[in-house]
Design goal:
Layout lengths: L7 E2 L1 H8 L3 H9 L6 E2 L5 E4 H9 L11 E5 L5 H8 L6 E5 L2 H11 L3 E5 L5 H11 L8 E5 L15 E3 L2 H11 L20 H11 L8 H13 L4 E7 L3 E8 L5 E3 L5 H4 L6 E3 L12 H4 L6 E8 L5 E9 L7 H38 L34 E2 L2
Parallel strand pairs: 4-5, 4-6, 6-7, 7-8
Antiparallel strand pairs: 1-3, 2-3, 5-15, 9-10, 9-14, 10-11, 12-13, 13-14
Helix pairs in contact: 1-2, 9-12
């Protein structure tokens, strides 16, 4: 197996991905929990898709992994939700004043939570809430009803619909719910801040299939545009692993990666908008950063988060300068727009990978090499299986108010 083959894993690679010991991974593989086969040398191999399925397989009644929150509220109250969810780094909020637009988003986003604001009393939004509560396909989504007067919600809603009185209480309830069960807490002496659902974010990053892949023109165009339009000598598309800041695309910088502890983007991925530092040496968070005090002597940074199709932040698009400076409003909007384009590219690649994995699994099952025959070797790619350059046709984007 070539070292660059990202679709097949050794036992040690499986252990690292699962976060368990090699012995535990070996037991899982040999016990049949994961389909596997033996190489001519007698070593077990597994498909990455099967390991990701094992990671993402929810326990009965648990929500599917998503960081998207759909908010339905009157136009006069949307700004209040924007302020509250700007302080929740663990989720991506999409807000709608129109019920029909919200229904389309709910059907396509697989949201972690849906917030329906009933103030002032609105019959259409109340009917939407009742319809959502009765829909068994939304069993993975949490429903929150916001109403200062609890009786407004009505007595015909099931008890699992969370009733809160304010947007602030809704944001707090959702943030508490995004933490995976038994998730380890960040150590007090951590070198950089992390979100409460960092483990889910890392799964999303792995699911994107972008780590350690060759350069791609689509991403290189974005870093080039960022550098040229924002008059910056350096522009980067970064992905953050537990230990590394790896550059999917880089303009003006030769280094392919840095330790994650060096990454200014650790702060960017906790933001909804642009995170900017006008003078890095004078900021106590970065004054001792090796990239600031030594070569290359960075002075200015600005970055915007890049999201996957489930609302998780996998990295950022950023610019760096060796002089002190400040972004104006137009430059800020430019960086946000380019980061949104980068997010679209990430989502396309996630869809491509899911399609390839599904077709590969169907092919294995059809040829008798699925779970019923774990010791069979992998087959050749089907003629119908998409190649790396193939792209699915994305569905039309819907008009929505999105906070990134």
């Amino acid at each position: 197996m070539g070292k660059t083959d990202k679709n097949i894993l050794t036992t040690a690679e499986t252990a690292r991905l699962l976060g368990v010991s090699v012995r535990t991974a070996q037991l899982l593989i040999e016990g049949g929990s994961v389909p596997s086969w033996k190489t001519p040398g007698g070593h077990r191999r597994v498909y990455r898709a099967d390991i990701m399925e094992l990671i993402e397989r929810p326990a009965p009644g648990s929500p599917l992994p998503s960081a998207t929150v759909i908010i339905v509220a009157g136009p006069e109250r949307l700004a209040g939700y924007e302020r509250q969810f700007a302080a929740v780094p663990e989720c991506t909020a999409e807000a709608f004043a129109g019920v029909h637009q919200a229904m389309f988003a709910i059907g396509s986003a697989r949201p972690h939570a849906i917030v329906v604001d009933l103030e002032p009393r609105d019959a259409e939004r109340l009917a939407l809430l009742r319809s959502l509560a009765a829909n068994p396909l939304l069993g993975h989504s949490r429903l929150l009803a916001v109403s200062a007067a609890g009786a407004v919600v009505g007595a015909d809603l099931p008890g699992w619909v969370v009733r809160v009185g304010t947007a602030e209480q809704a944001a707090a309830a959702i943030r508490a719910s995004v933490v995976p069960a038994h998730a380890p807490s960040a150590p007090a002496d951590a070198l950089f801040p992390i979100a409460l659902n960092e483990s889910q974010r890392l799964v999303a990053l792995e699911r994107s299939g972008l780590l350690d892949t060759p350069p791609e023109e689509a991403f290189d165009r974005l870093t080039w545009l960022a550098a040229r339009n924002l008059d910056a000598p350096i522009a980067l598309l970064t992905l953050l692993t537990p230990t590394r800041q790896w550059f999917k695309s880089r303009f003006g910088l030769d280094t392919p990666e840095t330790p994650r502890s060096w990454a200014f983007c650790n702060h960017t991925i906790l933001q909804k908008g642009v995170f900017s530092v006008e003078d890095l040496p004078s900021d106590p968070r970065f004054a001792d950063n090796p990239a600031v005090v030594g070569d290359p002597g960075f002075r200015f940074y600005a970055g915007a988060p890049v999201h996957d199709n489930e609302g998780f932040v996998v990295g950022s698009l950023c610019i760096i300068d060796r002089r002190r400076r400040k972004l104006d409003d137009a430059e800020t909007q430019t960086l946000l727009a380019l980061a949104a384009l980068a997010s679209d590219e990430v989502r396309l690649r996630t869809i491509e990978r899911q399609l390839r994995d599904t077709l590969r699994k169907v092919e294995r099952e059809a040829s008798g090499r699925g779970r019923t025959s774990p010791s069979s070797p992998p087959g050749k790619r089907s003629a119908n299986e998409p190649r790396e350059g193939d792209r699915p046709i994305p569905s039309p984007k819907q008009s929505r108010r999105r906070w990134q």
